[in-house]
Amino acid sequence: MKRPKLRKASKRLSCAKRYKIQKKVREHNKKLRKEAKKKGVSKQVKKDPGVPSSAPFKEEVLREAEQRRLQVEEKERRKQAKKEERAQKRKKEKEAASKETEPKAKKARQVKDKHCTPVIDASDVVLEVLDARDPLGCRCPQLEEAVLKSEGNKKLLLVLNKIDLVPKENVERWIKCLQQEFPVVAFKASTHIQDKSVQAKKSRIVASNEVLDRSRGAACFGNAGLTELLTSYATVNAQNQALLRVGVVGFPNVGKSSLINSMKGILACNAGVKRGITKSMQEVHIMKNVKLIDSPGIVASPSNPPVSLSLRSLQVEEGKESVLEAVRTLLKQCDNTQIMLQYNVSDFRNSLEFLSLFAKKRGYLQKGGVPNTEQAATAFLADWTGAKLSYHCKVPENISLPAYLSEAVVAEMQKGWNLDKLRTNNDETLKGVKFPNQASSITFISKGLTAGLLSISDISEEKPDAEATEGETACVQDEVTDFFSELSDSTAVSSNRIRLVSWK
């Protein structure tokens, strides 16, 4: 159809018409090839006739052709040699980089450990901060033994932090259990301290006649009792020295810096969910005669059982264990029903199936809707080590004193403290904190004390038992195999049902 006022028609076609023409051409060519194949007609390949014998300068032409061929081959050979040389160079650079990072990692661990022993030596009182969700797993026997054997009649106090994440009955049992060895202080650190003091915020709330929400992270409990305890001890021992130095030690992510910030009332030390934020010693004066010393977290020894390290997510951070293996180890220590209720997922047979359900629930999907189990495992570990997940461990029925403790040492550690006032302060702290329900908290069994490294000489390339490691790997492989075999069986059953329905 000609366009108006123009002599020629437009050559533009609609897409449907153009595609139809292309399709018809393809079908036509295909039909011709089919017919030629039936008739036995084959394409004649044009051969290179070469240089005719009658051509002048035939030898020179052949020599030039041979030289061109050799030049092309030499060019390809040089190209391949350069490619191999670049590959070797990349390999050497990668090996050199890996060799450089290993000493740096070792040095970083040594720097962390260098600060733990000086903190003990410089302190008159040592506060060992414990996570109330696993108090036994947060205790370091090497640390406690070093405090007891150090000079200067040092005292050791256990601070049970994060009590708001554990049921009240469990906290009371743990306080009663740990008091048989050392004095215990119940504590709930403030996690939302910024530049302004918590006291100023509380005073503004009281002045405006608003209700103080004690369930928020800004609320702190136990700081007044602990400050009073340290002040009274400093007053009693004022004849020896005017200033009481208190060292705050413990494993990573138990709340050491948060405890100091809560007692100071302002953001004096950097704190966060990420481990290893505190890099060196830091002194903070909370009162005229009391000074707190912050320290980096204790490095866990590689000789600890893998289960014990997985409960604290220590192996994952050091790159010794994958997040999938850590989640598998954690789920073996917990009840499936409680995990289902906590994350609102259906029943699962193993860790791989749980991570698939959890990934779909959170929207961690890869291309094609495949669940990203590794991302789900990382999120689960973040919940486990952070403050989102409420879990607790059962108090052992029979606990015997460690080898480095005796009744005489326990009695010596109890001296100098107003224990009656300490119990009263703990009761007041427990009254103010909002605790989770026993039913909504995940229960697991603690694996005992966690060995730590206090000096550089303790750092060695210690590895867990090889047989145990091989057994763990075999268990993972068996679990994955069982999962896929069950999955294939269920798929076969469902396909048979589909066939039966279609036949009917």
UniProtKB/TrEMBL annotation:
Region Disordered: list its residue ranges. 1-114
**What are the entry keywords?**
Coiled coil, GTP-binding, Nucleotide-binding, Nucleus
Compositional bias per record (Basic residues), positions renumbered to this chain: 1-41
Bias (Basic and acidic residues): 57-114
- Which terms does the record give in the GO molecular function aspect? GTP binding
Would the keyword Disulfide bond be found if you checked this record's keyword annotation? no
UniProt-annotated location(s): Nucleus, Nucleolus
Q: SUPFAM superfamilies of this UniProt entry?
A: P-loop containing nucleoside triphosphate hydrolases (SSF52540)
Annotated Gene Ontology cellular components are: nucleolus
Q: Which residues form the CP-type G domain?
A: 108-301
User: Where on the tree of life does the source sit, at the highest rank?
Assistant: Eukaryota
The record's InterPro entries line, in alphabetical order, gives: G_CP_dom, Gnl3_N_dom, GTP-bd, GTP-bd_ortho_bundle_sf, P-loop_NTPase, TRAFAC_YlqF/YawG_RiboMat
List, alphabetically, the PANTHER family matched: GTP-BINDING PROTEIN-RELATED, GUANINE NUCLEOTIDE-BINDING PROTEIN-LIKE 3
Protein name per its UniProtKB record: Guanine nucleotide-binding protein-like 3
What species was this sequence derived from?
Answer: Anabas testudineus
Lineage runs: Eukaryota, Metazoa, Chordata, Craniata, Vertebrata
Q: Which gene encodes it?
A: GNL3
